[in-house]
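User: My instructor asked us to take a sequence, write out its structure as C-alpha coordinates, and then describe one feature of it. I'm not sure where to start. Here is the sequence I was given:
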Amino acid sequence: MSQLLAEIGLRLAKIAVAAVLGLIVYLVLTGLMGATGSPELALLAWLSAAAALLLVESSPI
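Assistant: Let's start with the prediction itself. The C-alpha coordinates for your sequence are:
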Protein backbone atom coordinates (compact mmCIF):
# COMPACT_ATOMS: atom_id res chain seq x y z
CA MET A 1 0.00 0.00 0.00
CA SER A 2 2.82 2.43 0.82
CA GLN A 3 4.42 1.74 -2.58
CA LEU A 4 1.16 2.68 -4.28
CA LEU A 5 0.98 5.93 -2.34
CA ALA A 6 4.60 6.68 -3.19
CA GLU A 7 3.90 6.08 -6.88
CA ILE A 8 0.85 8.35 -6.79
CA GLY A 9 2.89 11.02 -5.01
CA LEU A 10 5.67 10.75 -7.58
CA ARG A 11 3.23 11.13 -10.46
CA LEU A 12 1.60 14.15 -8.83
CA ALA A 13 5.02 15.68 -8.25
CA LYS A 14 5.82 15.32 -11.95
CA ILE A 15 2.60 17.13 -12.82
CA ALA A 16 3.47 19.90 -10.38
CA VAL A 17 6.98 20.29 -11.82
CA ALA A 18 5.54 20.42 -15.35
CA ALA A 19 3.05 23.06 -14.21
CA VAL A 20 5.79 25.22 -12.69
CA LEU A 21 8.00 24.88 -15.79
CA GLY A 22 4.99 25.63 -18.00
CA LEU A 23 4.27 28.76 -15.98
CA ILE A 24 7.86 29.89 -16.41
CA VAL A 25 7.67 29.29 -20.17
CA TYR A 26 4.34 31.14 -20.33
CA LEU A 27 5.68 34.11 -18.39
CA VAL A 28 8.79 34.30 -20.56
CA LEU A 29 6.72 34.16 -23.74
CA THR A 30 4.23 36.79 -22.61
CA GLY A 31 6.68 39.03 -20.75
CA LEU A 32 9.99 38.98 -22.57
CA MET A 33 8.90 37.82 -26.02
CA GLY A 34 5.76 39.95 -26.18
CA ALA A 35 3.35 37.17 -27.14
CA THR A 36 -0.32 37.70 -26.49
CA GLY A 37 -1.49 35.61 -23.55
CA SER A 38 -4.21 33.06 -24.26
CA PRO A 39 -5.47 29.76 -22.89
CA GLU A 40 -4.02 28.03 -25.95
CA LEU A 41 -0.57 29.48 -25.24
CA ALA A 42 -0.83 28.39 -21.59
CA LEU A 43 -1.74 24.85 -22.63
CA LEU A 44 1.08 24.70 -25.17
CA ALA A 45 3.54 25.98 -22.57
CA TRP A 46 2.42 23.30 -20.12
CA LEU A 47 2.65 20.57 -22.78
CA SER A 48 6.13 21.68 -23.85
CA ALA A 49 7.27 21.64 -20.22
CA ALA A 50 5.81 18.16 -19.74
CA ALA A 51 7.57 16.95 -22.89
CA ALA A 52 10.87 18.44 -21.71
CA LEU A 53 10.40 16.74 -18.34
CA LEU A 54 9.87 13.39 -20.07
CA LEU A 55 12.97 13.90 -22.21
CA VAL A 56 15.11 14.70 -19.19
CA GLU A 57 13.66 11.78 -17.25
CA SER A 58 14.33 9.24 -19.98
CA SER A 59 17.78 10.57 -20.90
CA PRO A 60 20.39 7.80 -21.24
CA ILE A 61 23.10 9.95 -19.63
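For the description part of your assignment, you could build on this observation: The chain has a mean pLDDT of 93. Try explaining in your own words what that tells you about the chain.
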